[in-house]
Design goal:
This protein is α/β, with parallel strands linked by helices. It contains 16 helices and 15 strands. It has helices at residues 28-42, 47-59, 61-66, 69-77, 126-143, 163-177, 196-210, 233-248, 265-276, 299-311, 354-362, 378-387, 394-397, 400-414, 420-444, 451-469; strands at 12-14, 21-23, 82-91, 97-108, 114-120, 149-154, 186-190, 257-260, 280-281, 283-286, 289-293, 326-330, 342-344, 367-369, 390-392. A five-stranded mixed sheet has the order 3-4-6-5-7, sandwiched between helices.
Length: 473
């Protein structure tokens, strides 16, 4: 933490190597606060990143108390290895030139090539991408696969754009990004508003510029290097994580009423896997509101929703035109529905606030499984903890997507393809391993059952120990 800034030499203690130092007379909690304020002073406007950093910092208090040298390691880990910011010029269908801003934050290559998605959304800025990249480092660590962490994207809004406009934007984006990525350097994937179509356009432009075919992106089509189960992986993985928790805590998933937010890839396949386990998913949502099926979605109803969102690219309210049993609640979130057991927030960050969390508690929810990245505010998490509601944090519960991306990278390297059953079985094993790592770390550091702390501790320690072994990096 560079304690020399705050104390005399007599108050500074170092580890056996002399590389890592801390203050002997200052409580660890105070030194954590000092470190947070130091990082905050550099980037005071990066609220999403600072929120994620704060949560991780205070989850690691037991680790820092056991071995204070890790505080210095976290200071290094909180600073990205590289930040790439570039303009993305493109022309709309009227021939008018437009300009957006592109980002790639290569956060950590400690465990392997940078790995993380690309997000196209008007809310994207450096603070959002740094938050996502920081979380990705810990998430990728939990998978056990050799992947570092990174994230990227643009403030481009694909809604209302023609296919030709999206093609031209993707080609321009990749023309600036291609020199910074590669199969052994940085392997982007999809995220919000970057699906199979966009990955195809990006990959095609990369191949055209580099004159080579390699596994530089994941989430590719099966016809040219993609992996089975990759589209389903984040949603399936979240449900597998919940299933492990349910079995461990003797909670029955069959017949369990579940709330799901979002209507994109993660939400769709969360609903699909819940149906396969005979749970009862009741809701889906988008930015305009949510739909409620009082008896739950069925496979047929989910197919209709997927056609509306994936093919017609419509709004969730359009679903009510094809389902007479559905109710649409304009401008509202699904957390108001009562008599539920599980909540699966799969939309976006901070979608559950303190008020929403209290509704979930009052409506009987016992477990919140985060399919999105950081969908619960700090105040919402406090409500869960006070009420004894288990939080399955996003960096663990939604790691299925990047886990299968890692498996796609492995298949690309070996020039082979695994069957659907093989990939699904590997995904199940990875999610079980992640769950167990969270449980074990939480128990070891004195917070049994706290999966949020367990995920942060387990993910951090693997990266931190590797950073120490690799020198001053």
């Amino acid at each position: 933490m560079s304690p020399q800034t705050y104390a005399s030499p007599d108050d500074i203690q170092t580890d056996l190597t002399g590389r890592f130092s801390w203050l002997k007379s200052v409580p660890i909690e105070q030194q954590i606060s000092m470190l947070y304020k130091k990082i905050e002073s550099r980037d005071p406007d990066q609220k999403p990143f600072l929120q994620a950093l704060y949560e991780v910092l205070y989850s690691l208090v037991p680790v820092f108390k056991a071995n204070p040298k890790y505080l210095s390691v976290l200071e290094s880990m909180a600073e990205p290895e590289r930040v790439i910011l570039f303009r993305v010029p493109w022309t709309d269908d009227s021939g008018v030139q437009r300009v957006n801003r592109g980002f790639r934050v290569q956060f950590s290559s400690t465990l392997g090539p940078y790995k993380g998605g690309l997000r196209f959304h008007p809310t994207v800025d450096l603070g959002v991408i740094k938050f996502l990249g920081f979380e990705q480092v810990l998430k990728n660590s939990l998978t056990g696969l050799p992947m570092g962490g990174g994230k990227g994207g643009s403030d481009f809004d694909p809604k209302g754009k023609s296919d030709s406009e999206i093609l031209r934007f993707c080609q321009s984006f990749m023309t600036s990004l291609y020199r910074h990525i590669g199969a052994d350097t940085d392997v982007p994937a999809g995220d919000i508003n970057v699906g199979g179509r966009e990955i195809g356009y990006l990959f095609g432009q990369y191949k055209r510029l580099m004159n080579q075919f390699d596994g530089v992106l994941t989430g590719k089509s099966l016809s040219w290097g993609g992996s089975l189960i990759r589209p389903e992986a984040s949603g399936y993985g979240a449900v597998y994580f919940a299933q492990n928790w349910a079995e461990d805590n003797k909670v029955e998933m069959k017949g369990a009423r579940c709330l799901v937010s979002g209507a994109g890839n993660v939400a769709q396949y969360t609903v699909e896997k819940l149906l396969q386990l005979q749970a009862v998913p009741l809701t889906m949502s988008d930015s305009t509101g949510f739909v409620f099926e009082s008896e739950g979605f069925t496979e047929e109803k989910l197919d209709k929703m997927m056609y509306i969102k994936n093919v017609l690219r419509g709004r969730i309210s359009d679903y009510c035109k094809v389902s007479p049993t559905a109710k649409f609640f304009v401008g509202e979130k699904p957390w108001k529905v009562d008599d539920v057991k599980f909540a699966f927030p799969c939309a976006t960050e901070n979608e559950i606030n303190e008020f929403d969390a209290k509704m979930l508690v009052n409506n009987g929810c016992v477990c919140v499984v985060e399919g999105a990245n950081m969908p619960s505010t700090a105040e919402a998490i406090q409500v869960y903890e006070a009420a004894g509601v288990t939080l399955c944090p996003g960096k663990a519960a939604n790691a299925g997507g990047v886990a299968v991306s890692g498996l796609e990278m492995a298949q690309n390297s070996m020039r082979t393809s695994w069957t659907r059953e093989e990939v699904d079985e590997k995904l199940k094993r990875i999610m079980k391993s992640i769950y167990q790592s969270c449980v074990d770390a939480a128990a070891k550091y004195g917070c049994p059952g706290n999966l949020k702390m367990g995920a942060n501790i387990a993910g951090f320690l693997k990266v931190a120990d590797s950073m120490i072994e690799q020198g001053c990096v």
